[in-house]
Amino acid sequence: MLCLIRLKRLPAIPRRPGFSLLLGLFLSLTAPGLLHAQGIDIRLLRDINLHRPRSLDQAFLDVTHSTVPVSLALPIGYTGVGWLRHDSLARARGIRMGLALACTAVVTEGLKWAIHRPRPYMTYPDIEHLQNDSDGSFPSGHTSLAFCTATSLALQHARWYVQIPAWTWAAAVAYSRLDLGMHYPSDVLAGMVVGAGSAWAGWKIQQWWLQHRCSTRSGRVAFQPDPFLSMVIRPEKAFSL
Question: Taking CA atoms, which of 18, 158, 167, 174 is between 20 and 30 Å from 8?
């Protein structure tokens, strides 16, 4: 048997503004603010770069070149001393600093790749630059590494003779990126946030993990009914009971 089905005509869907129209509206609303911010960025950079004391160019180059060696030497040194001296605290500090640096590098390179902001001297030929880098400008990688290292040291050593040199060195690295014409001020500011934020987040995560581990161990010890049993299970603690 042949069955005929009458299809009901669907009502016409009203047309909506296209994606290009919405994108154009968004850009028209945000472009003035972005252009104003870019204007402040380049004006501040020109004030620093074009009016810098050129006799200090080599000194600032040395400061910026110290970023990677210092940032890598500290976690390697802490970890090495911890293994040689069987110092668990030094080893934990080295591992924490290394993880914070790795997190900083991943976030920084990811942002550079995603945003791909040209270097200031590529857009503004009047900017004097003493180096040539082809990667993205935002955020400043040297600044993020320096502030990650300084923040890690400040969190681990609550002493002024450690914190003041660490923050001074990090600030000098950040300023050197402007003095050498390699970054906009907003790049440097973002590098500070990324580096310090990564170190602080790594510190808090390790604290949480250590507290969780200690609470788990204390819970296991609480269920041991006899001190002699704990001596058998953990003979290294026999003379501490």
Answer: 18
